[in-house]
Queue: 2 jobs
Job 1
Amino acid sequence: MIEPVDIRKYAAGNHWLLAGLSSQLWGVVLWGAPDERNTAAFFDAFVAAATRHPEPRATYVDATRFASLETLPFVVFERYLKVHGELATRAIARVAVVRPHGFEGAFVAGAFGVLAQPYPIRVFAATDEAVRWLATDVDLEGLAAMYREASRVPGELDALRALLADHLSLPLAKAARRLAVSERTLQRKLAELGTTYKDELADARVRAAKRLLVASESPLTAIAIDVGCGSLQNFSALFRRRTGESPSAFRARHKK
């Protein structure tokens, strides 16, 4: 059974975190690509928390690390609203969502644009805009610390992934300089976390490729070049290794 959250405590799953930041504010962090089970677990936690604390609160949602291009999480959201809509309208005053960059951001904004909204929901590109709209203080540092603890992604790795998202051909030496550490220190920290720079760069390229495969009609060769792979063959092999399917199969499945 999921324990309801209380003030300054949080419940968390593999891709989500729900916290009672104050008696007036819920804090939510979403990351990665949650499946149906993960998404349902989040809403189960919210129902438990809202049942225990039914007073209306504003809700701040940090979705900047949300990486799904699937509609399933939003389908689950609609399902829960149908069952628990009355509870949700009592426990939530308004929701500010800070979206990811790029196509994921457009996807999130578009999804909330068509979903039923029993309370005001606004999607923002910037944190400060979301906080101003909520008109309440948000402990961003505290929420970030909870995310690092819940996701087991330390700040250094989070910073590296944000850097690689914008620089898909960045050599290790330049990445280390950008992060203000030595190459050896960066490699050591990554090894301690069970990863490598090569793996992190490969994952960043695959994430970027997924966006391009869904959001554009660009040929696979052009996408291979855009994400920093030297050839279509290398790109296809990398994509299949990290996802278990070919780029063309991934595109066909999502276009459908």
Job 2
Amino acid sequence: MTAEVTLTAPAKLTLTLRITGVRPDGYHLLESEMVAVDLVDTLHLGAGSGLTVVDDSGQAVPGVPTGSANLVARALAAVDRQVAVRLVKQIPPGAGLGGGSSDAAAVLRWAGCTDLAVAALLGADVPFCLTGGRAMVGGVGERVTRLDDRPQELILLLPPFGVDTPSVYRAWDRMAGDGSLPEPGTVANDLEAPAIAVEPRLAAWRRRLAEVTGAVPRLAGSGSTWFVEGSSASLGLDGVGSLDLDGEVARLVPVRTLSANPA
């Protein structure tokens, strides 16, 4: 390719998450409602090869690989393409917002690949990110049932740390085994208690967001993002860009839901 192409990769927000079983190979079966929101990564594709990952200021992003393990590199290999990619991250790693999966889905869309089976080979969230909009997602992520778009405004709270997803699922297995999980249906996200067990600071940030908004925060995926529904104005957060707690600072990011990608 000779001309640079710019792609956008929206974050994925998991509104509800239910674990319905565990396969013999250890993969967890889920039923989740997901929506795409307008917090986006940007990918600049040009001639050459290689992957650079930076933030808005051009600094390297800790915790994001730039080699063959990166989902962008894996997506390019899946569609047999070679380009140079400069990935500008807005979606924090380890936040439960599917940033890497959305980046991979953007590459698949650019290459003209709409095959959910190919997407599922890259990761559980990639099929939804390829579809976008609002959907129920089942199995290990490979079943995506589109739902009607529903315009929503939400506030994300992004703590200054990520949460390791495999550790959260291992905690769910352990808690399911010892009977310490909350009763089914008492929380919107079955991974909330396991995530707090892995990263106890999450509980304090949940309380902090609840205090300032008067709403009940929900956890995005396996964390670390908490979110509440509403606009900055309706939640009394106009002009408030962050919250502090015990010397740490978490960003507050207002987002809106996005429509589904074309079929």
